[in-house]
Amino acid sequence: RIVRILDEELDAIDRTQANTKASSVSIDALFQATLDDVIQGASASGKSMTLSDVLAVQPRNGWSPPAAHHAPSGTPVLTLSSVTGFTFKADRVKHTSAETSPVAHYWVHDGDLLMTRSNTPRLVGHVALASGLTEPTVYPDLIMRMRTDPSVMISDYAYFMLRTLQSRNYLTSRAGEASQTMSKITKRTVQTMPVFVPSQGTQAEAVGRLHQVEDECQTSRMMNQAKSNLLADLRAEILSRAFNGYL
Q: Helix count (H) and strand count (E) of the chain?
């Protein structure tokens, strides 16, 4: 009897968990489709340029301190995971005791556009906008830093544009093989990437729309995560009650 009850209850939980996961995948697909549609619509009225033309600060690799200087505290150095996933994570850092220069190029600042220049073929070229930095932070050699000229292109617009499937395909198709498992994007590939630059008003309108949709999608993802956590707790509770003879 207990086995029958367990099978019924756990099967129901598994089906609900699968539906919750499928819902999250659908949310991601919906946002990507909306992103591509909005940027494509904005680009229709845009001027043909290269990415280099819209940048005030050109792409440049950071600095990775020697492993011998890794330390539990010291100067924070971003890891690849700080950018991977298209969301900047200021807490994804390692620390170094290596000497740094306050005038060096490798410091990251809020508003910088960061791109992973070396990663797996699926993850290379991920972008994020730096924000929420609370102390001087270094960005590593495997990340490029750049900054848009705000009179030409809004930084948030460049960020969303570089997340479109068209941009992703452009970058990944031109990434060279750094090893059997890693791909690498060059500075020239990024700079010569063709872009269409609409008016500032059109850019702002697109950015506003995409932030709104992004916030709505994030709310839905959080609800799904909370639901998934509750289902996991429910599974554990049912198993506990079964093994303690309360079913």
A: 5, 14
Distances (CA, A) of 92 to 87, 102, 215, 226: 11, 21, 22, 23
Model-level pTM?
Answer: 0.85
Buried b (16+ CB within 10 A) or exposed e, 77-96: bbbbebbbeeebebeebbbb
Helix residue spans in 84-199 (DSSP H): 155-161, 165-173, 187-191
CA nearest to 145, candidates 168, 188, 113: 113
CA-CA-CA-CA dihedral for 178, 174, 82, 130, to nearest 10? 140
How many residues in total does the chain contain?
A: 247
Distance CA 92, CA 129 (A): 14
Average pLDDT, 10 consecutive residues per value, the chain (247 residues) = 78 88 88 96 96 98 95 96 95 96 97 95 95 96 97 97 96 84 93 97 97 92 90 87 74
